[in-house]
Design brief:
The protein has 238 residues and is mainly beta. It is 0% helix and 32% strand.
C-alpha cells in the first residue's frame, strides 16, 4: 500500500500551483485516501465557551496547542487525529450574528482563512479543511456572549477529488457512501468559498480507533487562467 505525506515542515508552504502530476497519484486512475483513525467530532475541542465577544477582538488561545506531534509525543495536533485537515463548527452562547474569522493552514502548510457568520446557539458548519489553527478574530456582538470552536466529521482531502467510489472502515467496505463536497472552482477563492480540493463526510462513524479509508477520482485539470491542478486552487488568506 503506497503512503503519502500527511506531515510537512510547518514553516513551509508545500502547495504546488497548477500541479498536473504526482508520484502519489496514477494519472486518470482511482486513488485511495487513508485517513486513519479519526477522532470523534467535538463542538468545544478547540475553543470552549470563550472569549466574551461583546466587543470586537482577536485571540491565539486554544484549548490545546498546535505543536507538531511528530516532534513532541505529548502534543496535540489539530484536528486531533491523523488526516488531511478537518472542517470546523462554531456556536455562540446566545443570539448573535457576529462574524468570526479563523486563520490557519491546510495539511500542505498553505495559509488559509475562513469566515463564519454566527447564528446564535445553532452551530455553523465550516466548509474549509484546516490542519492547524493560528488565530481567530470576531466582530462585536453587542452583548455579552461566548463562542465555542470545534470539529466536524467533514474531512480534508490530499488532492482535488471529483467523485467518491468506495469507503472502507477497518477493512470492511461500507455499503452506503458518504458525502463528497466537490472542489470549489471559484478563482480566486474567498473567505466563504468551499474547499478547493473538496471535503468528505464519511458514512462511517468516527471514533478515534477505527481505521477509515476511501477511494476517489482525482482531477488535475487547469482552468482557463492556468490555475488549479491536483492541489486545487490556492486558498484564500486574509
Amino acid at each position: 500500500m503506497r503512503r503519502f505525506g500527511k506531515y510537512y515542515a510547518r514553516r513551509n508552504n508545500n502547495y504546488v500551483p497548477a500541479m498536473g502530476y504526482s508520484a502519489d497519484v496514477v494519472h486518470n486512475a482511482p486513488h485511495r485516501v487513508n485517513f486513519g483513525a479519526v477522532a470523534l467530532a467535538n463542538t468545544t475541542l478547540i475553543v470552549a465557551t470563550s472569549p466574551d465577544i461583546n466587543a470586537a477582538g482577536s485571540s491565539t488561545t486554544f484549548v490545546n496547542d498546535n505543536t507538531d506531534p511528530v516532534v513532541a509525543a505529548t502534543a496535540v495536533e489539530f484536528p486531533y487525529g491523523p488526516g488531511f485537515g478537518r472542517c470546523l463548527q462554531l456556536v455562540c452562547s446566545g443570539t448573535s450574528t457576529a462574524v468570526v474569522t479563523v486563520n490557519g493552514t491546510d495539511y500542505l502548510g498553505q495559509p488559509m482563512t475562513e469566515s463564519f457568520t454566527l447564528t446564535g446557539i445553532t452551530p455553523v458548519i465550516g466548509v474549509k479543511a484546516f490542519k492547524y489553527l493560528t488565530s481567530y478574530s470576531w466582530t462585536a456582538s453587542g452583548a455579552s456572549r461566548t463562542i465555542s470552536i470545534g470539529t466536524t466529521d467533514k474531512l480534508g482531502l490530499p488532492f482535488r477529488m471529483t467523485q467518491v467510489l468506495g469507503e472502507t472502515l477497518d477493512g470492511v467496505n461500507v455499503a452506503t457512501l458518504g458525502t463528497l463536497v466537490t472542489p470549489n472552482l471559484t478563482d480566486p477563492q474567498t473567505a466563504t468559498t468551499t474547499d478547493p480540493r473538496g471535503t468528505y463526510d464519511p458514512q462511517s462513524t468516527l471514533n478515534g480507533t477505527a481505521y477509515l479509508s476511501a477511494i476517489f477520482m482525482p482531477n488535475g485539470n487547469l482552468n482557463a487562467s492556468g490555475n488549479g491542478g491536483l492541489h486545487g486552487l490556492a486558498h484564500y488568506r486574509a
